[in-house]
Amino acid sequence: MAKHHRNVGIFAHVDAGKTTTTEQILYQSGVIRALGSVNEGTAFTDSLDIEKQRGISVKAAATSFVWKDCTVNLVDTPGHIDFISEVERSLRVMDGAILIISAADGVQAQTETIWKALRKLHIPTIIYVNKMDRPAISLTDIMDNITSLLSPAALPVQQVQFDHEVLREAVSIFTEDGIDAREEHNIIAEWLADQDEEFLERFIEGEEIPPDELQERIAAEVRHGNAFPVCFGSSQKGIGIRELMEAIIDYLPGPAGNADGPLSGVVFKVERDKSMGRAVYIRLYHGKLHTRDTVTIMNRGLEEKVTQIRKLEGRKAIDLGQFEAGDIAAVYGLHEAQIGDIIGSESYVPPLPGMAVPLLTVQVHCKDTAQYPSLIAALQELSDEDPLLGLTWLKDERELHLKVMGSIQLEILESILLSRFGLAVTFDPPSVIYKETPAAEGEGFIAYTMPKPCWAVLRFAIRPLPRGSGLVYRSEVRYDHLLERYQNEVARRVPEALEQGLSGWEVTDLEVVLTYGEHHVWHTHPLDFVVATPMGIMDGLDQVRTTLLEPMQHFRITVPEENGGKVLSELVHMRAVFEAPYIAHGRCTVEGIIPVATSLNYPVQLRSETKGSGIMTTSYAGYQACPEGIIATRKRRGVDPRDQSRYILAVRNAISSS
What we know:
Blueprint: E1 5-12, H1 18-28, H2 49-54, E2 61-67, E3 70-76, H3 84-92, E4 96-102, H4 109-120, E5 125-130, H5 139-149, E6 154-156, E7 158-163, E8 166-172, H6 182-195, H7 197-204, H8 211-223, E9 228-232, H9 241-251, E10 264-273, E11 277-286, E12 288-290, E13 294-297, E14 302-305, E15 308-313, E16 316-320, E17 322-324, E18 328-332, E19 342-344, E20 360-366, H10 372-385, E21 392-394, E22 399-404, H11 407-421, E23 425-427, E24 431-432, E25 435-438, E26 442-448, E27 456-464, E28 471-475, H12 484-497, E29 510-519, H13 527-544, E30 546-560, H14 564-573, E31 577-578, E32 582-584, E33 587-595, H15 596-599, H16 602-609, E34 615-625, H17 644-657
Parallel strand pairs: 1-3, 1-4, 4-5, 5-9, 6-9, 28-29
Antiparallel strand pairs: 2-3, 7-8, 10-11, 10-19, 11-18, 12-17, 13-14, 15-16, 15-18, 20-22, 20-23, 20-24, 21-22, 25-30, 26-27, 27-29, 30-33, 30-34, 31-33, 32-33
Helix pairs in contact: 6-7, 6-8, 12-13
């Protein structure tokens, strides 16, 4: 199957031309009969009203085409940083990637973020330089930009042909007759010589290496993730598209996996089909899936039955009786499956790259209060399609809170709620999501033995960990001291207990160890540990105290040289840490790390101060401890477990009423 199959994602920074490239691929492969336009809202993969209106991609769009007897599953991903979660989920299920760079803009911060994720997952990648028809484009400058910021192993496999400075075509340096590609061949031969001693000897001796051997060797290196072919074109004009499709077949690998092996796959997308209902997109890594099969959602211990399997070929949905390892399909009947769920064994499923981290929280209001129940249902449906929205519903306060990436995402949510659900909403100004981490090592203890009947005694060791570690939980208690079913209940409740720390924020970057546990033969019920665990955890946090953490972003700002001094002054005021600025061609560029809290509105301010010529791009850079004196608290949901008497009454009443 690998020889006749490819799973390829298209990735890039905003406005690099991903959707236009996808449109041309579908057109030139015969999937669609007429070209759509991003600007006119007629692009094939932009299906949402807001995508058509704004000319941007919001959702990853999956389709397929056939080229030279090879079926290619193609996923067009959004380019804006606010929708990086869609990019992240798509990365996980790809065997190969096309990374598009605009010849006019070069490598951007978003490009580098995606590149790092591609390298982390070892995904073979073609670099496609779009917009080569723009005036005053220097191929040398473009390649220098790519090799310095991405990889020195980025190697051009095409030549660009011009007629009187007008782009005519892109041609392969290996198979096209009548072109002089000795310089490009030499670049590739030098790179190969650095990798292989035998090849080095041939190169030093001046042996002329046949072009087909060069291509075969470089293709093998690409499939192993060691080299990256660079292609060129103008997607707007359809130049270089067929050559790009050839490169997909020539350089990117087919999927691994055994169709006869144990079932293993992952859910990477959920959407609602107007006629069919809830569609769950699954990438299979191993085994086969048939209609009417009962599948196990391993990470949540659920079983569901497949009622139908469909595959998109252009605008047509093709019914399949089955699909197998290496393929992607929309599966129906899985009503409980969520994005990220593992179907069958998790042994063959790659990890998430961890790029998408919502940094802002916002409260949403319905303009018509009578539609409040409808708004809850709509947001639950949207959270099903994007779990990172992290919907929090405070029933008693009648409040709805979401986690978002930025202001553009809020505009999109507002539009979707109106067009899809008929709900007019407003959002409060977004606020930064802080976190907490233990300030020192310590212990938490709880003896929950009153009011009877109950008995749960727990002792936890709490230790801070390096930034980015998240939560590490383990137990040192033997099952003959505390039964396994009780320990499992504790393990489930520890992450929940850490959702709200002393200041109301999630507690992270810590190790929690259960060092002692005790139950009573007659009086203990498993629910006693539901009550006891948060009290023990919060007792420990109260002893060690917590440090407030704030989210940081990598930034790159480029402004006219005359604005450079003012920008540097503003960066200092915003507590940014940055390198010395770089000045070239009348532009000042500065890079560094900046707190989200101080720079939330700065991109808008920068555009205003520079009359639209200033550009700021950002990417997530993790959390850091706040400086002394910064205080940020969040209203606690429910009763604080440190007020043990009230907490026990509140939880026991909730348990008894359920």
